Amino acid sequence: MLDNTVKLTEEQVSYYRENGFVQIDSILSKEEVEELRGYLEETMGVQNGNSTQTAASGDMYYKVLNQRVNTWRDHGGMARFVLSRRFADAAKQLTGAEGIRLFHDHALLKMPQDSKPTPWHQDMPYWPMNERGALSIWIALDDVDENNGCLMLVPKSQKIKNLKSIDLVNPEDIFSDEGAKEIDRNTAAVVRMKAGSCSFHDGLTFHYAHANQTDKPRRALAIIFMPDGTTYSGANHICTDGLGLVKGDVLAGGLFPKLA
Ligand SMILES: O=C(O)CCC(=O)C(=O)O
After folding, report:
1. Which atom of ligand 1 is nearest to the CA of 138?
2. What is the pLDDT of residue 98?
């Protein structure tokens, strides 16, 4: 049952709050990983649905990520996982927020052959939110290490402010930003894990993913959660454009459901 919750340890919660990320092993069973892989495969091929493929094969961005946003809006199986209480409740425990809403999910595949790393960046600058506190769960659907695209995360980097968004195809070096002077990339954790394990990272945490040098796709599902009450900043975003939101509106309702 994906609605069962996982009680995180005090160490996991305090590690997240101090360092801006935490790894949690085996959040999914082997059977659940197998099930989710099947749904993911069906979803990646959807044409004209309610989810969005952000780049086509051959595009430069596709070499960084073969990405599909809002898979839950097309596939009931993806929805079962994305909307499950298990992940949202873990986000609630980590943040201490009174409630957790979905912002969006995205399937993140790193394809074999000419794969590029995901450059160092923060997520928050891409999100149209006034308050900090939003976070991602990144669920590995394959065993991951430096050879096929595991994440690297810089401890305590969430303590600095929201810098500017980085072009993921022609990246500037985020570490050369004046605001990032105190962040040392040499302290980054290499987050190797087994399929079915996950990490959570704060929207401000500096992170990177290695290129995939193997001959198989690296599959991951990331879900972005936000504390209930988070408000719209007015910036453009694929998930809010066209919804008629005005600056300061609470991000809520059926497209941003409260999950925990
Ligand atoms: O999976 C990747 O390569 C990058 C993931 C990422 O940047 C994120 O989940 O915020």
Report:
1. 9
2. 98
Amino acid found at 28:
L
The hierarchical CATH code for the domain 10-227 is 2.60.120.620
DSSP state of 90: H
CA of 209 to the centre of ligand 1 (A): 7
pLDDT at 66 exceeding the cut of 90: yes
Cα-to-centroid distance, 172 and ligand 1 (Å): 17
Q: How far apart are CA 240 and CA 243, in angstroms?
A: 6
Please report, for the chain, the start and end positions of each structural domain, with discontinuous segments joined by +.
10-227
| pTM of the predicted structure, to 2 decimals | 0.97
The CA distance from 26 to 116, in Å, is 27
Q: Using CA atoms, how far apart are residues 104 and 85, in angstroms rounded to an integer?
A: 15
Which 3 state secondary structure label does DSSP give 24? strand
Top mutation candidate among 67, 103, 108 for ligand 1, by most atoms within 8 Å of CB: 108
Which run of H or E residues covers position 14? helix 10-19
